[in-house]
Write a structure and sequence with these properties.
single chain; alpha+beta; globular
Amino acid sequence: MEPLFIGSHVAADFLNTTLTPRGEAIELIGDGASFVAWLVKAQLLDGEEAARLRRRFGVAALDGTAAEARKLRRWAGDWLGRWRESPRASYEAELRRLNELLGRASSFRELSVTKDGPRLVERMTIGEPGDLLGLVALEIAKLVAQEEPALLKRCAGAECTLWFLDRTKAHRRVFCSASACGNRAKVAAFRERQRG
């Protein structure tokens, strides 16, 4: 299954790399190759750099990093759920862990010439496989630092486990996707009315 990018924020999309449609668990970053592919699709890593990293680090090291990414995802989901409910609480241990991961991702700026002219680009330095977690940690940190906690939501669809950042004007979004969970809810409500 292809990763879903419906969370309106890369951190929410990372949480959505595991999903349980209709009660069946699906893991989207089950190995190093799928984790690196997700980083590319999330635009946290470019395709050329990903190919170089796969050759440089090898399958076993990247598989170990994917296992760490799955642990990070569980931890982040738990913490972000608590942060959403109690944004002013003390999260010293969580911030310490996130800052530790952020320390793994060093960056530099580079002036690149594009078809639209010169552009300043920030590039990440990946010295070891675990540094890839820093790319994800940066997105989690951006979510916590820049977004309103109440706008991070879980889908209200029956059995849906997906997260999203509600960027709608009225902030009333309740489903991960109107065409999937929203449509199923409308059909279920219609059927209930027909029975009633």
